[in-house]
Every structure is written in C-alpha cells, then in structure tokens.
Amino acid sequence: MSKIIEIYTDGACSGNPGIGGWGVYLLYGDNKREMSGSEYDTTNNRMELTAAIKGLNALKRSSSVIIYTDSVYLKDGITKWIFNWQKNNWKNANKKDVKNKDLWVSLIESVEKHQIEWRWVKGHIGNVGNEIADNLATNAILDAKSTQL
User: Fold this and answer.
1) Which of 22, 56, 51 lies closest to 39 in space, CA to CA?
2) What percentage of the chain's residues is helix, strand, coil (to nearest 5)?
3) Residue 12 and residue 103: Cα distance in Å, rounded?
4) Full-model pTM
5) Gap between the Cα atoms of 133 and 35, Å rounded
6) What is the DSSP string of 29-50?
7) 31 contact partners, CB below 8 Å, separation of at least 6
8) Of residues 6, 37, 39, 134, which has the active-site annotation?
9) 30 noted as active-site residue
10) Catalytic residue check, 114
11) 102 an active-site residue?
12) pLDDT (tens digit, 9 = 90+) per residue, 100-140?
C-alpha cells in the first residue's frame, strides 16, 4: 500500500484585496517539499484556493492525499458548497455569482485526479505543517513587496 501524501496549504494577503501569497508544504515519507508564490491585487481566499491547486498539481501521479488547511472557506467550499454551486449554474444560496469561480473550477480539475481527505486545522497554534505553510505564504508577500519597490 502506498504512503499518504500530506499537504499543508495556506494563503495570506497584505490588504484584502492586496498583495497575496500562497504556501504549500508537502510531506511524503521522509521527503519534504516547500512551494510558494505571490500575486498582486488579490484576496486571501484566492490565495487559499491557489495554494491547494498548486499543491495538488505538484503531484506527478494519482495519489492518496490529506490536505490540511486553516481555511473554512476552502474546506467547506470543496466538500459541501461546490455541489450546489455547480447544480445552480455557479450561483450561491443568495442567487449571486460564486466568487472565485475560475479557481474553484481549477480546484475541481485538480481534485479529480486524487483520493483526498480534507482536514481543517486551527491556524497559528503551533501546528508545524500549518506554520511552515503560513511562513511560506507570508514570505512570498514580503518578496513581492520588495520587488515592487
């Protein structure tokens, strides 16, 4: 039986909207990988979604994955809300367009390749994987700010 890949994801934003960063910390047995990036004029929710997409797209083959996120928006969106959004032509419960549809569609495509368990973790309480992902996202923002000057 193959090992489970653990992915810790986080997104952050300096201003909302503002400069955003995403961070991913992948664990597979003894192997570890860190990834991050940034975008200008984005939101924290877009960065949370981007982190999950980037983490899943980094996997080379179909895998069993546990994704840890401190974002209720991400976890509940992909495990609960998305089904009604799709059924209702990407309208939310208030009949308004679902925000970040482009990223939700990308996430669905990334999710379909894997067997995924989504786990919510409370942020900023010392969970090592979550702290690493948070630091990656925050540092990506700092790097983007320094290159913007």
Assistant:
1) 22
2) 40, 30, 25
3) 16
4) 0.95
5) 9
6) TTEEEEEEEEEEEE-HHHHHHH
7) none
8) 134
9) no
10) no
11) no
12) 999 999 999 999 999 999 999 998 888 999 999 999 999 99
